[in-house]
């Protein structure tokens, strides 16, 4: 296990984060305490130090398990938790981004985690009602109080994150150093605005659902008819085809499909920009070990090109418009190919 800097910070986190949404069986699925502990110990033994949870995961059981598991080495682990999603049904202020829910949630998390500080505190999802000034000032208060060391933002439009960090920089408040998004070969929508924004603002990206809700494991492809069509009609045909290419690459490399899918996400990091740190969960230790094995998988340029061709998306306006030859000729006076742009772009 190697380590990466978390965006525009000096915090060192392992190159794969452990997702713990399945720690606890309160939602009718997930892992028992014993299985959760076994998974946690295997991750830590592999060198992992970055653990991701949330105040509402399995009705609070996930945080309680994590808090118990980290007790003997609290200072070693980078513990990330989130607020926004409901803690109580029917109470409008027991959910959302506002300061009241923020403060009550952080105190709940501190108690459940049995710690006096949280390493990384995420805003879990944008609520479209709370002013960005209220959020950033509230999070900065938590940092100044020592209850939180760093802050991040999850499942939020790029324009909101950009505005929030610009405001924080101008006011001297804590800024978001992490961005949590859905991103995989099965869903590359984040490439339109979220990933370019994160690269420009030096924000680390921690993608979730890197296996595309299981589609990229190929399990639906195995359940197909003689013509190769998926019997599970809930899987879009295109995602079925993407998974088939993942299967081919895995067979050629002698690894698993999950490892190929995770390795592809890791390969999307540009050395010039903030890191991509996939969040991996597991139902059992064998699944965790399989996911960790992605760190040993090296995709060739040919494999990356094939996977890219199978999964690429249209970026849409204005990206495709600005990348067109005609517009580039106008914008660059016909010299686009002769201008070295160290900042990247389309």
Would you spell out the secondary-structure blueprint of this structure?
Blueprint: E1 3-5, E2 12-14, E3 17-19, H1 33-45, E4 50-52, H2 61-70, E5 78-83, H3 99-113, E6 118-123, H4 132-144, E7 148-154, H5 158-171, E8 176-182, H6 194-201, E9 204-208, H7 237-253, H8 257-267, E10 279-280, H9 285-292, H10 301-311, H11 319-323, H12 325-331
Parallel strand pairs: 3-4, 3-10, 4-5, 5-6, 6-7, 7-8, 8-9
Antiparallel strand pairs: 1-2
Helix pairs in contact: 1-9, 4-5, 5-6, 7-8, 7-10
Give the DSSP E fraction (strand runs of 2 or more residues): 5-15%
Radius of gyration: 21 Å
CATH topology of the largest domain: TIM Barrel
CATH class of the largest domain: Alpha Beta
C-alpha geometry: globular
**What is the CATH superfamily label of the largest domain?**
NADP-dependent oxidoreductase domain
Q: Could you name the ranges where pLDDT drops below 50 across 5 or more consecutive residues?
A: none
Give structural notes.
With 346 residues, this protein is α/β, with parallel strands linked by helices. It is 38% helix and 13% strand. It has an 8-stranded parallel sheet. Helix 4 links the parallel strand 6 and strand 7 (148-154).
């Amino acid at each position: 296990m190697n380590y990466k800097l978390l965006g525009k910070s000096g915090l060192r986190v392992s190159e794969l984060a452990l997702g713990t949404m399945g720690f606890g069986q309160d939602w009718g699925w997930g892992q028992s305490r014993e299985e959760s502990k076994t998974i946690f110990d295997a991750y830590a033994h592999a060198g992992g130090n970055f653990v991701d949870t949330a105040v509402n995961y399995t009705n609070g059981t996930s945080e309680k398990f994590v808090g118990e598991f980290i007790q003997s080495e609290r200072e070693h682990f980078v513990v990330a938790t989130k607020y926004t999603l409901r803690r109580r049904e029917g109470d409008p202020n027991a959910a959302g981004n506002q300061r009241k829910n923020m403060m009550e949630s952080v105190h709940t998390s501190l108690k459940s985690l049995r710690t006096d500080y949280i390493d990384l505190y995420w805003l879990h999802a944008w609520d479209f009602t709370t002013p960005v000034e209220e959020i950033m000032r509230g999070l900065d208060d938590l940092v100044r109080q020592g209850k939180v060391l760093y802050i991040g933002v999850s499942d939020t439009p790029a324009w909101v994150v950009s505005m929030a960090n610009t405001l924080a920089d101008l006011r001297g408040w804590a800024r978001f150093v992490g961005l949590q998004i859905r991103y995989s070969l099965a869903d590359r929508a984040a490439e339109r605005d979220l990933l370019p924004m994160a690269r420009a603002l030096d924000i680390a990206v921690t993608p979730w659902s890197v296996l595309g809700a299981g589609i990229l494991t190929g399990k639906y492809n195995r359940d197909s008819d003689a013509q190769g069509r998926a019997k599970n009609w809930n899987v879009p045909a295109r995602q079925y085809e993407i998974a088939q290419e993942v299967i081919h690459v895995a067979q050629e490399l002698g690894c698993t499909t999950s490892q190929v899918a995770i390795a592809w996400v890791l390969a999307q990091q540009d050395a010039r920009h903030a890191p991509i740190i996939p969040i991996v969960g597991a139902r059992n230790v064998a699944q965790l070990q399989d996911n960790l094995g992605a760190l040993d998988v090296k995709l060739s340029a040919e494999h990356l090109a094939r996977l890219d061709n199978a999964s690429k998306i249209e970026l849409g306006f204005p990206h495709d418009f600005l990348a067109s030859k005609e517009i580039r000729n106008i914008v660059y006076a016909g010299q686009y190919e002769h201008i070295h742009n160290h900042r990247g772009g389309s």
